[in-house]
Predict the structure of FAD linked oxidase.
Amino acid sequence: GSSSSIINANILQCLSKHSQTPIPIYTPNNSNYSSVFRSTINNLRFLSSTTLKPLLIITPLQESHVQAAVVCARKHGIQIKVRSGGHDYEGLSFISDVPFIIVDLFNLRSVSVNVTDRTAWVQSGATVSELYYRIGEKSKTLGFPAGVCTTVGVGGQFSGGGYGSMLRKYGLADDNVIDARIVDVHGRILNKETMGKDLFWAIRGGGGGSFGVVLSWKIKLVSVPPIVTLFTISKTLEQGATALVHRWTEVAPKLPHELWIRIIFTLANSTRKGEKTILASFNSMYLGDAEKLLTVMKERFPELGLERKDCTETSWLRSTLYFGNFPVQGSLNMLLNRTQPKNTFKSKSEYVTKPIPEIGLEGIWKRLLKEEKPLMIFTPYGGRMDEISESEIAFPHRNGTLFMIMYIVSWNEKGVETSKKHISWIRELYRYLAPYVSKCPRAAYVNYRDIDLGQSKNGTATYLQGKAWGRRYFKGNYERLVHVKSKFDPENFFRHEQSIPSIAHPW
Ligand code: FDA
């Protein structure tokens, strides 16, 4: 409408005044607007024609462009959404109920690796696999413990924790972040020293979109052995999956730190004609060679029956292809491919603090078997995660957590009714899981954003409203996050439906 064109004209004018170099901007009149908008929308559930589209998409080429975007949006009272990789489960980086603009960081994706220092600076618009590729280009013995899905953005992932196959050895991506550059609400660029320890604490795990725009992260690289070993062993219910999974809940969190065995649950055809069964795939990486792994498994988890023929020895860099569902021996260039596998889905997460009895597991199977395309993943914690205190950084799920559960339902058919059906299925599973998962709070992973935990219209939550999701994502760190937010962004400029509230602002 005409009011949006006036807003656009004002912002465009402001942007050109605040930048020495041209800033690439897409208005709805631009023929590429739609493709840029859609490019990194990972959850197709949020690509409907009825959602409000951004007034503008700003795609900064330099840090100063981000500064200009913040200054001008604030001056004209317009909400911004920051997008790095676009994988937000609830689409909060690109949808809104009120007029808004997107600051999309996909052009800011340089990675500079310093092998001597064993550090790197990575810009937020890079994907995690671009980071892995650049590290691998420079060194065969250095790596980084971030996510397993190749196309996830560094900006969103590092804002909320970031875990992958080296979690038990080295903790989260955020446990290895040693500096950052952030644009604050005044449009200033701050680093670790100038932002101070409170803000630096908050941006490591406190979730994206609440404190400013993180431009880049300085990370400490970690040692990886020249050979790592991968395996996936799959068992159906008929092959005794239930007892094995139960055994895994006792064993996996206590294995040597070098060994990470997660379980991926999907449906498969049963031996009984026309029936489905649960397939539990034990999917693993060991930081060491196959011979050593076989010794460890024989001693600690013989029930799984791992044999030499199940093992693939490769480099750490190539293991990232494996977890990204590419052939281990395939081209490493796949790591630079930003094309995302997309889906229409709804997901939830849990933290588990005591082993789930077999009867509890059987109730899960029963529910999974009612859906067409359910997926559930058990990710073991323990190891390094137990050694870091809950308040070291804003991410709080540490000692006492045996494993994390992520469950997801995806579907192909369109329509509101279909979505409703699948979403109520996952909510029912959530209710079922209550006795088996963490309580007070029933915790969740902020990077697996779940709007069912609570939300505020246009990010205007009070302290108490924000506690609904804040306590689950951040446990006892929620209070400090509110404190940091109130100090650095009292007027609540950086906000979204599940952001950290400011108590300095009288809503
Ligand atoms: P996106 O751009 O959507 O941003 C997510 C949130 O952060 C939004 O609120 C956004 O505004 C904010 N934000 C983005 N960039 C910012 C910046 N530069 N500064 C401040 N705020 C910013 N997680 C994990 O730990 N390990 C894993 O293996 C996986 N695997 C995985 C697979 C798939 C298919 C999906 C869809 C997701 C995952 N995740 C994951 C979860 C993932 O870490 C989470 O969705 C991240 O927030 C995504 O980051 P993006 O930059 O892609 O998202």
About this structure: Residues 416-433 form the longest helix (18 residues). The chain has a mean pLDDT of 96.
